[in-house]
Structure formats: C-alpha cells, structure tokens
Design brief:
The complex is a heterodimer. Chain A is 41% helix and 22% strand. Chain A is an alpha/beta fold. Chain A has two domains: 117 residues, Rossmann fold, CATH 3.40.50.2300; 90 residues, Winged helix-like DNA-binding domain superfamily/Winged helix DNA-binding domain (Arc Repressor Mutant, subunit A, Orthogonal Bundle). By secondary structure, chain B is an alpha+beta fold. The chains are: A alpha/beta, B alpha+beta.
Chain lengths: 216, 495
C-alpha cells in the first residue's frame, strides 16, 4: 500500500511518515500543494493524507484539481473543525475528514477503511481457501495457524488479495509496495514472491508470464 | 404590584393633581357665585332696613289711632311701652310703615323679606312672615348691651350681615335703643348653589375621566418603546445577540435611547463574534503543535527506539512546545492590551536609537536571507515605552526581511513631521495582494493561508504592533504594490 502525505509542518510530516512506514505502508511526502498535486497525479496512491492549509496551493484547490483525473481516496487533515468546513471538504471530494490533533490509531483505522472501501470490500478479513488475512491486525493465518511474514511480504499478499482475480503487473506492485526512497532492485519482487509461496503454499500466487501476478 | 408600574404611578399622580385643580376651581366658582348672590341680597336688606328705621320715629304730638294701620298684615302688636318705670326717661316711639313701603316685605314667594323690631329686649314690631326666632333674638348680644336701655343707647357698630339657618339677616341697632332685623329666606339661593355645585361636580367628573383616559393613552404611547426595548433586551440577555429594538419614531427621547441601545447591541454582537473568532483561531493555532507532539510521542512509544530516535522525538516535541509558548505569550499580550492592563511606560527617549538597535540585532537574520537593511534615521525624541516600541520595530523589520526577495533591501526611515514621529519600513518583496491588504492587521490573518513556521507568532505580530502603537496614541498603516514591495508606516505623537 502506498500513501502520499501532503503536510507543511515538517515535524508532523516526518513523524506521520515514520509511523505509516512502520505500519507497513510505502510513504511519499510533499511539503506544499504544488509538489503534492504533482505526486498525486503521477502515481496511483492507495490513499492520500492531505492537509488543508498548505503554501502555494491549498488542500481544497489541490483536491479539486486532482479529482479531474484521479479517484484516489483522500483523507483531509485539518485544524478547522467546524461543520461547514467538514461539509466543504467532503463535498469537494474528500473521502474522510480528520481534525487535528488526532490519535494515530484512529488515523490508521480510517486509512485502512478508506483503502478497503476503494477495493470494494466491507470487512477487514479476506479469506482465500485456507488462508485468512486480517488487514486490521496485519496478520495472516494458514489453516488457523499464524504465519510469520515480513512487512513487505505482508503488503504484497494484501495488495494481491485486495485485487483478487485481477492480474497485477510488476510495475503496479513496485508502485504500491515501494516508495520513492526505496532502492528498487529489479529482482526484489521475485524474492518476496518466492518467500510468500514458501510460507503460504506454492499455488497461492500464480505467475502470468509476461503480465504479472495473481491470486485466484 | 400595580403601584410599581410607572404607568399606574403616573396615572395616579396626575389623576390626583387633576382632582385637586378641579376641586379648587369648582369651590372658587361656587364661592364667587355665592358672594355675588349675598351681596345682592345684602343690598336689598340694607335698603329695607333703612326704610324700617325711617318708619320708626317718635310719636307726633297728636297721638294717632293705633288701630288704623295702612299696613294690615303685619299688625303692630304693642303700643309703644314706656319701659320699666323708675328708669331713665325713654322717649316713646311709634312705628309707622309708609304705604309705599308695604310692598317691600312679604308675603309671597317672590318677596319673602321680613323685619323684626326689638325694643327693650322684647319684640316691638314685626312683619307677619318673620320666622319664629324671637327667643333666640332676645339673646342677641346687642340686646344685652342695650338692655336695660339707657337713653341714648350706646353707640354700637352694626354687625355685618350673617346667615342663620336658611335666612340671611342684617341687624341694625338704633341710637334710640331699638334693634331692627331685616332678613329674607335664602332657600332659593341655597338650592341654586347646590345645583351649581352639582353641575360643577358633574362637569369636573367628566373632565377628570377625559383627562385620565387621555393620560392613559398618552402614557401608553410614550411608554410603548420601553416595552419593545425591554422585550429586545430580554431576548439579548437570553443569548440572542442579533435582536434589535424596533423603533419607528426616532425623534422622541426614547427613540434616541433605543437607537443608542441598538448601536450598543450591535457593538456587543460584533465584539462577541470577534471574541468567538479569536478563540476559534487561537484553538486552531494550537492544534498543529499539539498534533506534532501527539504524533511524535505515539510513534516513538509504539516500539523500542534508539537513543538518537528518542532524541529526535524530544527535539520535535520541544519545537512544538516552544511554538505553543510563543503563541500563548502573544495571546496573553493581546489580551492585556485589549483589557488596557498593559500600562505603557512613559519616558523620553530617542526613537532613532531604538530603530538602530533593532536593525543591528537583525543583521544576522538579514544576512542569512541576503537582505540589506538601509536605515535613514533623523534623531526624533518621543515619549513612550521604548521596549514595547522596539517590539513593534523588530516585528516590522523581521516581516520586511522574511517576505523579501533574496538580495532585496529593507529601508527603515525615521523623521519628524508636524508633531509626529513617522517611521516607515519598506521592503522589496512580493508585496501583498489588494484583497489581503485590508486584513493584515487582523488577528491570525495570513496572506498565504498557511502557517509560516519560521515566523512563529501565528499571524499575531502585526495585530500586537497595531495595539501597541494605538496605545501610544499613534496609527499604523500599510501600502503595497504587488511585485514591488510593501511599506508599513507608523506615526507616533512626539509628546
């Protein structure tokens, strides 16, 4: 899962990014509206955390322009807590609205919900044959037994599971699993896929040669 | 309860005054009328008493026949007495009313005059229609004076006419010792007086009712604005500050009062709204640093960290705390300036020196941003709080440096102009857009709609500067050309 944070307060931006990375997300950051809009238009993020008060281009304007091209779920982060501000935010195309100061666990839960909804799912638990993925706890069980996965491996499984039945290209996987700070070695993905197959069964992920991967 | 009401009290008071005036007027009118009647009657009585006195004279040498009286109805009962023997010789007297005077005394409704003559304490002669008061008359003080009568009798001043029962009488003692009473019934006059009094009372009552009704209407009309004032004030005190008093006529005193109250309410509402906005803005400004502290702390605590990571977290928290401290200080300073508690020191000092010091202190900041500070300062002495004004100057200079372009200039100029110290701080930055320009001195207003993290006083700096300059009796203004630069001008009185 790859997330963009647009926030002009450096301390807040850094700690948010760190916290989300530790939650297993790939995180990109932008400190002003223009950079944020550029990034948001360049990649298919799984979600965007967007501050309202931004230099150069404020959050409302960014959202308005972004909505012309992308349907990326957007969570607005703002200090304005009056109901008319929330109405404005939601009407402009925001998918959720969090008022500062916020609790990190709540922000994470809202992000999970956003991503879940954008994948047209209603629960946090995805079951594929005997494999059960709990996206809230970030746990995977195989035949009721917990399976140890690294954060990156888990993200790979979760992304493929959310797009179950679709063929996910390597480029898509790179875009959603790695952020701009990661060194993306070309065979890193193959290593993760083979590790997942060892842990969850060889047939769990199928390879469509020349296209990408798929969970059926 | 009813007497606490202004309307009722007014009504009571002028009702009372009206009653007194009407009663006084009616009483006087009756008095005058009565006096007039009495004077008329008294004239008649005096005329008649003269006639009676003239008819009473010593007998002529030839004794006339007493039986032959031309005046039949009032018979002259007694022959003139000689008085008690052994006393002073008292000339005999006889009473002979001339025929032409007979019509002057009764009988009849129209002519009810009567007379009584007393001689030596007893009735000597009387008209037939005299009311039966002989007994009371014999105790008349003048009779005792003249009885037993001496001749000539004492000179006694005739008493004024008086009223006894339904009769008006006048009494005249004669030098010869006789007493003559002439009187008449005043029953018609009394009846007339009662009727007049009744009419006046009736008219007075009607006037009183009209007056009370008119007064009630007038007071009601005059007090009606008070009702609308009190209903508006009640709603306002209940919290609805948008209420206003609805006054049609603003000419009257109450109309003017209502207008004054309305403008007070408007100011109250504006102040309240401003206060709410201010509180909301202040809370808003605190949200971001609190978010930083929370996020940093929650992230750091979510798992074991290295010392360096903890250090970084604590540093970020410290930065946020500093930011909150600056904000709180600014808020408190504004609150003190608003409340007028911030007493400005008043001392003579050279403003040019203060500007120079501030510019000197900001040289490093200007150097970092590659901005040159050019000062053109005429020595100007003013009276005021040097420390606070230095705060204003620093704020203007910091803004001019921070919003400048690299390699730009900040020009500080100080001169004395017609009793004012004029300080201008001009920069060569981007300028302020015309729509932002009128709001730059507003609290928490920022042109770029985002936090200027490096500034740190959260858009309160210019608001504080304005409050300080105004506390010195000065003014501060701004002009700007987008793309060319912004100029702030502070004018302070020299004394």
């Amino acid at each position: 899962m790859r997330i963009l944070i647009v926030e002009d307060e450096p301390d807040l931006l850094r700690s948010l990014a760190q916290a989300l990375r530790e939650e297993g997300y790939a995180v990109d950051t932008a400190q002003n509206g223009e950079d944020g809009l550029f990034s948001a238009e360049s990649y298919d993020y799984d979600a965007i955390v967007l501050d309202v008060m931004l230099p150069r281009l404020d959050g409302w304007e960014l959202l308005k322009r972004l909505r012309k091209t992308k349907k990326t779920p957007v969570l607005m982060l703002t200090a304005r807590d009056q109901s008319r501000d929330r109405v404005k935010g939601l009407d402009t195309g925001a998918d959720d609205y969090v008022v500062k100061p916020f609790d990190l666990p709540e922000l994470f839960a809202r992000l999970r919900a956003l991503i879940r909804r954008s994948a047209n799912r209603t629960t946090n638990v995805i079951e594929i044959n005997d494999v059960k993925i709990d996206t809230a706890a970030r746990n995977i069980f195989r035949a009721e037994k917990p399976v140890e996965l690294t954060a990156r491996e888990y993200s790979l499984v979760e992304f493929l599971a959310l797009h179950r039945g679709e063929v996910v290209t390597r480029t898509q996987l790179y875009e959603h699993l790695f952020d701009e700070n990661d060194s993306t070695l070309s065979n890193l993905l193959d290593v993760h896929v083979s590790n997942v197959r060892k842990k969850l069964g060889a047939g769990f992920i199928t390879t469509r040669r020349g296209h990408g991967y798929c969970i059926e | 309860m009813i007497f606490k009401s202004i309307k009722w009290r007014l009504q009571l008071w002028y009702g009372l005054i009206l009653v007194l005036v009407l009663a006084g007027f009616g009483f006087t009118a009756c008095q005058l009328e009565w006096g007039r009647q009495m004077r008329r009657i008294d004239e008649e009585l005096q005329r008649r008493i003269g006639v009676v006195a003239a008819a009473l004279r010593p007998p002529p040498p030839r004794r006339p026949d007493f039986g032959r009286q031309p005046f039949g109805s009032p018979p002259l009962n007694q022959p003139p007495d000689e008085g008690p023997p052994g006393q002073n010789p008292r000339p005999p007297i006889e009473f002979h009313l001339p025929p032409q005077a007979a019509g002057l005394f009764g009988p009849g409704d129209q002519n009810n005059f009567y007379f009584v003559i007393f001689r030596d304490g007893t009735e000597f002669a009387a008209s037939t229609n005299q009311p039966n008061r002989t007994v009371t008359r014999s105790f008349h003080p003048l009779i005792s004076v003249n009885t037993p009568s001496q001749f000539p009798a004492k000179e006694v001043k005739p008493p004024p006419p008086y009223v006894i029962g339904e009769f008006r009488e006048v009494c005249r003692p004669l030098p010869s010792g006789e007493m003559i009473w002439v009187g008449c019934s005043i029953a018609p006059e009394l009846k007339q007086l009662n009727l007049t009094a009744l009419k006046l009372t009736g008219a007075g009552g009607i006037i009183l009712l009209l007056g009370l009704a008119g007064g009630w209407w007038l007071v009601g009309r005059a007090l009606r604005p008070i009702d609308s004032i009190s209903s508006a004030a009640t709603k306002i005190s209940a919290g609805d500050l948008s209420q206003r008093i609805n006054v049609a006529e603003t000419e009257s005193e109450l109309g003017q009062l209502a207008a004054v109250l309305n403008s007070t309410f408007a100011r109250l509402e504006a102040a309240f709204a401003q206060q709410q906005q201010f509180t909301a803005d202040a809370a808003h400004e605190l949200r971001t640093p609190v978010s930083v502290v929370l996020t940093q702390a929650q992230t750091a605590l979510s798992r074991e960290r290295t010392t360096a990571e903890y250090r970084e977290t604590i540093e970020a928290c410290q930065r946020s705390a500093q930011r909150m401290r600056r904000l709180i200080e600014s808020l408190l300073e504004l609150a003190r300036l608003d409340a007028g508690q911030e007493s400005m020191k008043r001392a003579r000092f050279n403003l040019a020196g203060t500007v120079d010091d501030c510019a000197e202190q900001l040289k490093p900041l200007a150097g970092q941003r590659h901005v040159k500070i050019l000062a053109e300062l005429a020595p100007v002495e003013i009276t005021g709080d040097a420390e606070r004004l230095a705060q204003v100057i620093t704020n203007l200079l910091v803004n001019a440096i921070q919003y400048n372009r690299p390699d730009g200039e900040v020009r500080a100029k100080l001169e004395a102009q017609s009793g004012l110290a004029v300080l201008t701080v001009a920069d060569t930055g981007q300028g302020i857009s015309p729509e932002d320009l009128p709001h730059v001195f507003e609290r928490f207003y920022r042109g770029d709609k985002s936090r200027t993290v490096s500034n740190g006083n959260a858009g309160l700096g210019l608001a504080i500067a304005k409050a300080i300059v105004e506390a010195h009796g000065g003014t501060i203004s701004v002009s700007s050309k987008p793309g060319t630069g912004t100029t702030f001008t502070a004018m302070l009185p020299l004394v």
